[in-house]
Amino acid sequence: MTLQEFRESLSGTAPPMPENFALTGLWWDAKGDWTRAHESAQQDEGPAGAWVHAYLHRKEGDISNAEYWYSRSGKKPTQLPLDREWEEIVSSLLS
């Protein structure tokens, strides 16, 4: 799946890859459902889930919590605009 195909899937009612909790979290985030996004990211206990978790807490404005999750993901905190970070994470997880 490409980034464009992932974006196009947002017109649907269910995530395209429900077994991938990190990507599903980003899908729900793009649909405007932060709570479902967060719940999904929490189900992935690996680095991908931690990265999405960091992004979500950064978006929420909880920077100290975001920094914790960036550390768990092995990523450095970013100053990218949120939409650019979303794209970066999706692209990375799709590759």
Strand elements, count: 0
Could you tell me the radius of gyration in angstroms? 12 Å
Number of helices, where a helix is a run of at least 4 consecutive DSSP H or I residues: 6
Shape: globular
The description of the largest β-sheet is:
none
Distance between the termini: 8 Å
Order of helices and strands: HHHHHH
* Low-confidence region ranges: none
How confident overall, as mean pLDDT?
A: 96
Content of β-strand:
under 5%
User: What multimeric state do the chains show?
Assistant: single chain
Helix content: 55-70%
SSE blueprint:
Blueprint: H1 3-8, H2 21-30, H3 34-43, H4 47-60, H5 63-73, H6 82-94
Short key terms for the protein model shown above:
95 residues; mainly alpha
3D structure, described in words:
This protein has 95 residues and is mainly alpha-helical. Helix content is 67%, strand content 0%. The protein has six helices and no strands. It has helices spanning 3-8, 21-30, 34-43, 47-60, 63-73, 82-94. α2 (21-30) packs antiparallel against α3 (34-43). It starts with a helix and ends with a helix.
In short:
This protein is mostly helical. The chain has 6 helices and no strands.
